[in-house]
Design a protein that fits this description.
By secondary structure, this protein is of the alpha+beta class. The protein has helices spanning about 10, 30-35, 40-45, 100-105, 145-160, and strands at about 15-25, 50-55, 65-70, 75-85, 95-100, 110-120, 125-135.
Amino acid sequence: MPAPLPTPATALPWARRVVAHELAIAAPADRVWSLVSTPARYGEWNPFIPRIDAPDGLAPGAELLLHVDMGRFRTTSPERVLRCEAPAGDAPGALVYVLSGRMGRLGLVRAERHQYVVPTGPASCRWHSFEGFAGRLWRLLPYGGIEAGFHTHAAALKRAAEAPAG
């Protein structure tokens, strides 16, 4: 049996605010993982993060630049991958990254996002995603847009994964 899935409380005890979303997906975990772990395909399915620049892939330590559509405005977010593991058997897949730009280096905003693909059967899984925020400016972040984006991201992932192949 795999280890228990991290929760915001266990993974982000330092967070002053957490945004989270989860849902069931009627598709194999491997199909969902393929979408989540292929940055070049984000524009095909993800309106919240329509582009990820990942010149070194998703290996731990790799730098990413997320292009984020917050609805009222667009921004970029430099991130560093902490963990990237595909689902295996009944063990979940995990993609974890941390804000790595100037705001993070200066301690203005600390942000860490966890995304898990948890197999629940041969043709089903659950998507768990949460992000913790802290730092001197954590109260000023656009949480309404972030929460809407998490919902949009999850719904789009579900649609793309459940769509008929081909």
